[in-house]
Amino acid sequence: MNALKIEKGSSSHSVYNLRDTSDETIQKHTLAVLVENVPGVLARVIGLFSGRGYNIDSLTVAEVDHEGHTSRITIVTSGTDHIVEQIKAQLGRIVPVQEVIDLTVEAQSVERELALFKVRGSGDKRIEALRLAEIFRANVVDSTLESFVFEVTGTPEKIDAFAELMRPLGLKELARTGVAALARGQG
């Protein structure tokens, strides 16, 4: 897990600098939020983050129980332990929220993301893009004489690494789904 030290006297303006946090680290947290699937619940969750200056690194939402009208919102955010505890408490007070689980702290989890990459190129660059796609187990989902569309599934770090390698080879467009995560085991 990547963590960075907050410097005392930092000049950046964010919610993280409102109090002395010199002994705390900012870490990414993956939150699974089960909500009633009713109009406006996503707007309320997003409003909580934007209204308090919290950032969302990744957001995915889908209905997980059609009969029970339940959706799952998976949010990746960054903050000190104190900030993340505030976020969880505030999410829990939103009426349509049924449960908030911090998958980073409360359980080991499996995280995956899907990304589509459009890579244009010819000659050696085209051959190199195909070679790297094979190493990353990327699927070719579209191919023309000028470009490929690759589908990559994996951790966000894997997606980032593939993007960095494709940039010099002709990466033209990238679409990411955001993180989907589940706790490991029986939990």
Automatic annotation (TrEMBL):
Listed InterPro entries: Acetalactate_synth_ssu, Acetolactate_synth/TF_NikR_C, Acetolactate_synth_ssu_C, ACT-like_dom_sf, ACT_dom, AHAS_ACT, AHAS_small-like_ACT
PROSITE patterns: ACT (PS51671)
Pfam families in the record: ACT_AHAS_ss, ALS_ss_C
Entry GO MF terms: acetolactate synthase activity; acetolactate synthase regulator activity
EC number: 2.2.1.6
Pathway named in the protein's UniProt entry: Amino-acid biosynthesis; L-valine biosynthesis; L-valine from pyruvate: step 1/4; Amino-acid biosynthesis; L-isoleucine biosynthesis; L-isoleucine from 2-oxobutanoate: step 1/4
Statement: the UniProt record of this protein carries the keyword Phosphoprotein: no
Superkingdom classification of source: Bacteria
CDD domains for this protein: ACT_AHAS
Domain ACT: 30-108
Top class in the EC scheme: transferase
Catalytic reaction list: 2 pyruvate + H(+) = (2S)-2-acetolactate + CO2
The entry's keywords: Amino-acid biosynthesis, Branched-chain amino acid biosynthesis, Transferase
Keyword Amino-acid biosynthesis: yes
One GO-annotated biological process of the protein: isoleucine biosynthetic process
GO CC aspect terms: cytosol
Annotated function: Catalyzes the conversion of 2 pyruvate molecules into acetolactate in the first common step of the biosynthetic pathway of the branched-amino acids such as leucine, isoleucine, and valine.
NCBIfam families referenced in this protein's UniProt entry, alphabetically: acolac_sm, PRK11895.1
Quaternary assembly: Dimer of large and small chains.
Family: Belongs to the acetolactate synthase small subunit family.
Descriptive protein name: Acetolactate synthase small subunit
Lineage: Bacteria, Pseudomonadati, Pseudomonadota, Alphaproteobacteria, Rhodobacterales
Annotated gene: ilvN
